[in-house]
Design goal:
single chain, about 400 residues, alpha/beta, 8-stranded mixed beta sheet, 7-stranded parallel beta sheet, 12 helices, globular, binds zinc ion
């Protein structure tokens, strides 16, 4: 078996030969992205580079690439990154969602539990018809997210039905979702999570839990998580979140991270984070592994707006551009095996690219409690390339 590096090296050679047509001196590319500030955390690159694409794959990332291209994007003054990966969205709820997300630079998304066994077929259909890579988590509740709380009746967490949903859509389903807040699960939070793990186990899939204001404390919830599972809404306010009454990070939470549990931002709209929790946790060094939006097709008029806007909130808290881009590219790619060749501009990788602008100014950012903080920089989506093709820009 070749490892990833060898595989990329081999496909690099193949791509280079493909790109250099017989007899031609200069290479011919499908697309050239010229003169941008390329930030690729997968290799620690932050430099002015051209990105050449051929056959839907990255062919070269170098300064001043010569050669012909069918299409050229002038990226001078812009940020060029691997296509963004948003691991907590509800983009699968309507077929209008994925094309909008693509305009925001999102080339891979995960619909995180909009649907359960009863309605996953619709989400899977949207994912298959999406203009980028769409995947889904099956909600442990057969109804998916539901008003009044989908887990108030624990019989909705039906293991056999959920396993059937996974089996019907092995190409789309990448994990199981359980929402554990008191207004979703009541006293059923731990049992719902146990059942989610029961569904996931035979398929070796991760479970994503949504925390904050749960009946049970984190010290009871976290032992039910395995390496590779994901905690979303990591900065949800009390009760029963990651900070104790004095604002100190629970030792159980740091211990869970050490054993490979992933912590995801999950911006959302209601009760998922406030600035105080972000500030207290990050001052103790507890930064996100991944930054996601909890986005849906209506999010542009909320505090979410788009993934670049959500990333900008962490620039405001002092993360570097390299770090925030990592949270939406290589770190996110490592969460789900479906994305293992994504989140990088390595030569030979699928040519998914986000082009953004980092503007200086005064920008107001919102938490979920109408709290506003003002940052000095904000990322704006400019253009997206998926599988080597430039996609329609945002209106
Ligand atoms: Zn969500």
């Amino acid at each position: 078996m070749m490892n990833r590096r060898q595989f990329l090296a081999t496909s690099t050679a193949a791509t280079a030969m493909f790109a250099r047509a017989p007899g031609a001196l200069a290479a011919t590319y499908g697309l050239l992205i010229k003169g941008g500030r390329v930030i690729d955390p997968s290799v620690g690159l932050d430099a002015i580079r051209d990105v050449a694409i051929a056959g839907g794959k990255i062919a070269a990332v170098e300064a001043n690439i010569a050669g012909e291209a069918a299409d050229t994007i002038d990226a001078s003054g812009r940020i060029v990154t691997p296509g963004l990966i948003d691991i907590h969205t509800h983009a699968g709820r309507s077929k209008e969602g994925p094309p909008l997300a693509l305009q925001d630079g999102v080339t891979c998304w995960v619909d995180a539990g909009s649907a359960g066994a009863d309605n996953i077929d619709q989400i899977a259909a949207v994912a298959r018809g999406a203009p980028q890579l769409g995947r889904a988590l099956v909600n442990i509740a057969r109804t998916g997210t539901a008003p009044g709380g989908e887990l108030m009746d624990i019989e909705r967490a039906n293991v056999d039905l959920a396993r059937g949903a996974v089996l019907r859509h092995r190409d789309i389903v990448v994990g199981i979702k359980a929402r554990l807040s008191n207004n979703v699960a009541g006293t059923n939070d731990l049992e719902a999570l146990r059942r989610a793990q029961e569904v996931a186990a035979p398929f070796n899939l991760p479970v994503m839990i949504h925390i904050g204001q749960s009946y049970s404390p984190m010290r009871s919830i976290l032992p039910l998580l395995k390496r590779g599972d994901i905690v979303t809404h990591m900065y949800a306010p009390a009760p029963n979140a990651i900070l104790d009454d004095q604002g100190r990070l629970f030792p159980d939470v740091a211990a869970a991270r050490r054993r490979g549990v992933m912590f995801d931002f999950g911006n959302g709209v209601n009760n998922h984070f406030n600035w105080e929790a972000v500030e207290k946790a990050t001052k103790q060094g507890f930064w996100p592994d991944t930054i996601s939006t909890d986005w849906n097709a209506q999010s542009r008029t909320t505090g979410v707006v788009d993934l670049p806007n959500v990333l900008s909130k962490f620039l405001m808290f002092g993360m570097s551009l390299m770090q925030v881009i990592a949270c939406a590219t290589i770190n996110a790619a490592r969460v789900f095996p479906s994305f293992e060749d994504r989140g990088t501009l390595n030569v030979g990788a699928p040519a998914d690219v986000a082009i953004m602008e980092l503007r200086d100014g005064s920008f107001d950012f919102l938490d979920n409690y109408k709290g506003t903080r003002t940052g000095r920089q904000r990322l704006f989506p400019i253009a997206t390339v998926f599988a080597g093709k430039r996609t329609p820009p945002r209106a």
